[in-house]
Amino acid sequence: MEFSSKLLERAVNEMAQLPGIGKRTALRLVLHLLKQPKEQTEQFTSALLKMREEIKFCKKCHNISDVEICDICSNPSRDGSVICVVEDIRDVMALENTGMFKGLYHVLGGKISPIDGVGPSQLNINSLVEKVKSGAVKEIIFALSSTMEGDTTNFYIYKQIKDCEVITSTIARGIAIGDELEYADEVTLGRSLIHRIPFENSLKNM
Amino acid sequence: MEFSSKLLERAVNEMAQLPGIGKRTALRLVLHLLKQPKEQTEQFTSALLKMREEIKFCKKCHNISDVEICDICSNPSRDGSVICVVEDIRDVMALENTGMFKGLYHVLGGKISPIDGVGPSQLNINSLVEKVKSGAVKEIIFALSSTMEGDTTNFYIYKQIKDCEVITSTIARGIAIGDELEYADEVTLGRSLIHRIPFENSLKNM
Q: Which of B7, B29, B52 is facing A50, going by the closest CB pair?
């Protein structure tokens, strides 16, 4: 792409660094900002800058928060002895939307992924192990995505806490509610047979 | 979507104002910026702000430019008597990529579109009509997109310059090179019959 303006080119190149945004889309977005009043660009950039500079992470669960201890961790009606281990804030939001979980979260900030250069030391794993070793935790629920990286991360943490007195579980894998059996992949279908549940239990929360 | 942080929420809402970016995508992009070094967000926002504040439009063709008269308009080897009328800078870039056009451009900045609240007065139409009336232009080539808005804009301009001594043309509409006939829409196929070209002419520039 050849640009008639260096200012435009720089803006497009910066926009195209966002994941999933190609050069063409970046140009479309930047031209949109040019057509809108100058104030929109000012508000947009100041919101991003302010967030990047002032954002805090909860000291207990490492979730994004505007205060030292987030609303979930500081809620006295939640059960601090059950901790759900997730990758990032989107998983917390998804789980909170279900309204099914009354424990606390622990946000790892990613998954172990050598290909992306993410090792255990870059994740919030040590503080989780310390929490477990302190004896205040009864159950750890792994809720990472069902990928090789997710499984690796689960197992890495499990090895460090398996000698502690703590129950460990993972969220159920199986056929999604509403899914047709014939379109399910073999691995999921096979595991859903092995981990079948008593029919009476499956009637809960319907 | 419920956010645990107002800073995050504001950043996501601003990001989601960009066209084609929904709330989920906006959250993904904002979280990406949070994972990257602070400098990336600073460079990104400063590039956008600087562009929005300092960008200039060429005084002759209204294309985006860093100088008063853009590189194309100030190029003495280009033919100022042929003017190609386009919607925005992307069309200029696309046409320049063909290497087939040696005239100048006139960037309207949009199309007449009552639904979007865009009338003729918001577009760079008057300056085009003045250019034509000054007598320095021999041919006007309309290269707007082939939509109702594009056709309306073409016709609006045509009405104002049809009494001047100027040739008006539009770029050819027809079956794209490499396209299968059976998948072409009826209107395009029908017009490609009406506006058929002598076979010898079709061999040019192959």
A: B7
Distance of alpha carbon B91 from alpha carbon B145, whole angstroms: 9
Distance CA B45, CA A168 (A): 44
Spans of all domains in chain A: 6-54, 70-171
- Provide the ipTM: 0.84
Q: Tell me the fold of B77-171.
A: Dna Topoisomerase Vi A Subunit; Chain: A, domain 2 (3.40.1360)
B17: its two tokens: 């104002």
Chain A: give the shortest CA distance to residue B191, in Å: 30
- Report how far residue B161's alpha carbon sits from residue B137's, in angstroms, rounded to the nearest whole number: 11
In three-state secondary structure terms, A132 is helix
Chosen for mutation from B52, B57, B60, B123 (greatest number of chain A CBs closer than 10 Å) is B52
In words, the CATH class of domain B6-54 is: mainly alpha
Q: What is the DSSP secondary structure assignment for residue B118, as one 8-state letter?
A: B
In tens, the pLDDT along B66-106 reads: 889 999 999 999 999 999 999 999 999 999 988 889 999 99
Contact (CB<8Å) B10/A51: yes
Question: At B200, is the secondary structure helix, strand, or coil?
Answer: helix
Question: Which residues in chain A have their CB less than 8 angstroms from residue B64's CB?
Answer: 4-5, 8, 34
Distance from CA of B200 to the nearest CA of A (A): 33
**Mean pLDDT (10-residue bins), chain A, 206 residues:** 89 96 95 92 96 93 92 94 94 90 94 92 95 92 91 94 91 84 84 82 72
| HSE-up of residue A202 (Cα within 13 Å, Cβ side) | 10
Chain B neighbors of A22, CB-CB under 8 A: none
Q: How far is B205 from chain A (nearest CA, A)?
A: 23
Average pLDDT score over residue span B48-63: 94
Q: Rg (Cα) of chain A, in Å, rounded?
A: 22
A70-171, CATH topology level:
Dna Topoisomerase Vi A Subunit; Chain: A, domain 2 (3.40.1360)
DSSP secondary structure string, A89-130?
HHHHHHHHHHT---EEEEE-SS--BGGGTB-GGGSTTHHHHH
